[in-house]
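Take just one protein record:
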Amino acid sequence: MILDFHTHVMPPEMAAAPFWQGKCPMTIENVFEAAKIAGVDKTVISNPGHELRHQSADEQLKTVQMINRYLASLAEKHDNIYALATGQPYGGDKFLRELERAVKEDGCKGVIILSSLPGHYPDDDDALPFFELVTSLDIPVFMHPPSVGFGEERLDIYRLASSVGRPMDGALAISRLIVRGIFEKFPKLKLIGSHIGGGICDMIGRMDYAYNLQEEAYFLGSYEPMLIKHPPSHYLKMMYLESTCYWAPAARCALETVGVDHFIFGTDAPPLKVLKKQGVEMIKSLKLAPEDEAKVFAGNAKRLLKI
């Protein structure tokens, strides 16, 4: 079985926005078409809510509610589709109640959040109630980068916002969650980093020496207050990483960093449905043992989603 953890679907009301010029690729029809071509059996659909960065709190809530109800309706209609709710970790009680409703009433299997919103990263104190809720619900949190993150003033050429900026924002968010002690506070948190964590596996060794060389590395800046008890790589291994990257050496690095039991297959297609087959072929190119390939393609996701 192959289960794709990473596809995006847009509610019709949002797909009709002028930006999409009448041809938004994030449709359930494209999900099914791409899955058929690539031999994918089951699919997790989600919508990270890129529009939230431009909206007021009231507008954000309406958007989240619209997405959650629409994706849940698709999951109810199709037995090979599972939905993640869209979350806003910083919005307070009304967003927490909406997430709880989407999980308990609509049957959403987890939640997707952006790795940042303007002025916010998930390690912020106002996101702590969100992590309390998701751990009490025992659902996975899929962290996805925003359309544009930090450094956007230099990312407006050659699609660098998508190819470079987005994954780097995800890596920054993961690094902050680690050093700010979120995994110490919530050791049962099931956090999945999209896009193989945005390159965090290339940087984790540097994070470890920044932690280990406390006195010797004084000139690098302060490491206070100390909020973790282990090197950062210890907490990265508590996470799950999703395979979207389309570069087998990077995928292998991520898999070896967190282990085969914490590596999850995804393609981020649609929107670009042509990448679906490429994502499947990349995992097969790793030439994993059959039992390990089965874990990556479906077993690990099924365990997290309780399906």
About this structure: The longest helix spans residues 57-77.
